[in-house]
Amino acid sequence: MNIDPVLQQTRRHFFRNCGVGLGQIGLASLLGDGQLLAAPEAPIAGNPLAPKKPHYPAKAKSVIFLFMAGGPSQLELFDYKPKLQELHQKPIPQSYIEGKRFAFMSSFSKDVPKLFGTKRKFAQHGQNGAWVSEMLPHTAKIVDDIAIVRSMATDVFNHGPAKVFVNSGSPQFGRPSMGAWVTYGIGSESQSLPGFVVLQSGPRGPRGGAGLFASGFLPTAYQGVPLRNTGEPILNLTTPKGITADKQRQALDAIKELNQARLDATGDPEISTRIASYEMAFRMQSSAPELVDITGETKQTLAMYGAEAGKPSFAMNCLLARRLVERGVRFVQLYHTDWDHHSGAELTKGLDTVCQQTDQGCAALVQDLKQRGLLDDTLVVWGGEFGRTPMGEVRDTPGRNHHIDAYTMWLAGGGIKPGMQLGSTDELGFAPAEDRVHVHDLQATILHLLGLDHLKLTFRFQGRDFRLTDVHGHVVKKLLA
Predict the structure, then answer these.
(1) What is d(CA 303, CA 298) in angstroms, rounded to the nearest whole number?
(2) What is the mean pLDDT of the chain?
(3) What beta strand segments (E) does 273-323 contain?
(4) Considering only CA atoms, which of 340, 350, 344, 339 is closest in space to residue 396?
(5) What residues pair up with 398 in beta bridges, in sequence order?
(6) Which has the minimum average pLDDT: 183-187, 276-280, 363-367?
(7) Which of 129, 177, 178, 271 is deepest in the core (most CB within 10 A)?
(8) Which residue would you say has higher pLDDT here, 269 or 213?
(9) Are 442 and 386 in contact (CB under 8 A)?
């Protein structure tokens, strides 16, 4: 009779012969508790926004993103379409819209949508003969300094998620914004101002709110800091009455010691962020008021921007954006709202208003950066979350629906080829005919100009490596100088 030898093993035999043994189990336990390892170095609360080396030499040091929230109509501003004018009020061929989705499908469900020509006049400008409408007379003067991309495309046709998509590479909230990715990748050259600053103008805040400039799962040191138009530039910076600078410094030092003790115990990077934010706030008590004090700007400069001292405006924000990059801020984002023009009234009076509010400031910013020698290493980007349809949207008076297949943006400086015209659309302005540029391509190109490889700029979260461009994106090499 054969007896299984395993059944004859005692507990002592098992622990002696098994793969690890009692001694090894004990050793593993001690190592797991860190009792037999050299003591780790205590975490040091450094500045998370300190400048970092990029992946390769950069063309741009900073970015100013002029975000026109709401979806500017490329067909009223940049994309001149004589054929669309010729076919005004004719039904669009079914082949164009078959299988397509739009933000307000009900406006296209009762009848075949009709093509809608523009009432705006276009002319060619500059050495490159770029077509620009009468709505942007100041931008028309700088066409030789900017690169116009008429073949932009995106994936999302509703405002909130579309804005989040352009800013974070995903239509879902919770991902880091572009400014957060940039400051995470290369830090900031400013030691007295945030690395990522947000300026807002227009009658309302942009749909998406703070999610448009959040840090997502990155440490909160990299989130955008809103700079206010009135009152305190940044909230909670004013020293309370009765508190001297010495007392404040003593309090901050005590708080820092407590935070450092907690950092030593946990290694939590958010504690490093907290320590750095206290120190930054202390420095900003002098730097923020100095930033918004424009008494040193000349009358000629204010007139060029169309800005008035003491009066908040998009033009003033453009001037502040120049002052921010002069002081080493890495990423500045300007939001101007009310570009959503669904009705005829919105497409006439509404468009008139926002163009008058923004055109001069945008052009002045490029000219001012250029004359100060800052444009070479400052990348300026202009555009919104999507464009508008070549079909009229049926309302009391027709306007234009949201359109994701083709729209226009422009870029300047920071390694961009000046005077470039990239891409074109079909004769109706419905879809790109050549050189389609997707939002992820734009994001990859912006990172590239800052010396960052969009494939390598990643952050591991919940078991996955995330990046701004998700799993897409190519650098648009034709745009590069």
Answers:
(1) 9
(2) 88
(3) none
(4) 344
(5) 343
(6) 276-280
(7) 177
(8) 213
(9) no
The two tokens of residue 80 are: 């001149």
Residue 28 has a CB neighbour count (10 Å cut-off) of: 11
Domain extent listing, the chain: 62-233+298-479
- CB 138, CB 79: distance < 8 Å: no
What's the CA gap between 74 and 288, in Å, rounded?
37
Q: Tokens 């908040």 belong to which residue? A: 312
Exposure of 265 by Cβ count < 10 A (0-12 exposed, 13-18 middle, 19+ buried)?
Answer: exposed
Pairwise CA distance, residues 214 & 275, whole Å: 19
Measured in degrees and rounded to the nearest 5, phi and psi for residue 72 equal -60, 140
Which whole number is the average pLDDT over 76-80?
98
Q: Which runs of E-coded beta strand occur in 206-350?
A: 225-226, 331-336
Find residue 399's DSSP bridge partners.
Answer: 393
**Is the separation of the CB atoms in 360 and 316 below 8 Å?**
no
- Look at the block and give the residue holding tokens 């992820």: 440
Residue type, 470: D
Confidence of residue 40 (pLDDT cuts 50, 70, 90): very low
pLDDT digits (tens, 9 = 90+) for 44-70: 457 889 999 999 999 999 999 999 999
What is the rounded CA–CA span in Å between residue 201 and residue 154?
Answer: 24
Cβ atoms within 10 Å, residue 19: 5
254: left (phi over 0), alpha (psi -120 to 50) or beta: alpha
User: Burial, 393: exposed, middle or buried (Cβ in 10 Å; 0-12, 13-18, 19+)?
Assistant: buried
Main-chain phi, psi angles of 350, to 5 degrees: -60, -45
Contact 217, 203 (CB under 8 A): no
Say if residue 18's pLDDT is above 80. no
Distance CA 332, CA 224 (A): 9
Q: Give the pair of three-digit tokens for residue 148.
A: 């116009």
- 102 with 417: CB under 8 angstroms? no
Rounded Cα gap, residues 215 and 459, in angstroms = 12
pLDDT in tens, 438-456: 999 999 999 999 999 999 9
**Under 8 Å between Cβ of 417 and 480:** yes
Topology of domain 62-233+298-479, per CATH?
A: Alkaline Phosphatase, subunit A (3.40.720)
Chain mean position to CA 382: 11
Cβ atoms of 215 and 461 within 8 Å: the answer is: no
pLDDT in tens, 117-158: 999 999 999 999 999 999 999 999 999 999 999 999 999 999
Among candidates 224, 230, 437, which has minimal Cα distance to 335?
A: 224
Per the listing, tokens 């204010």 go with 302
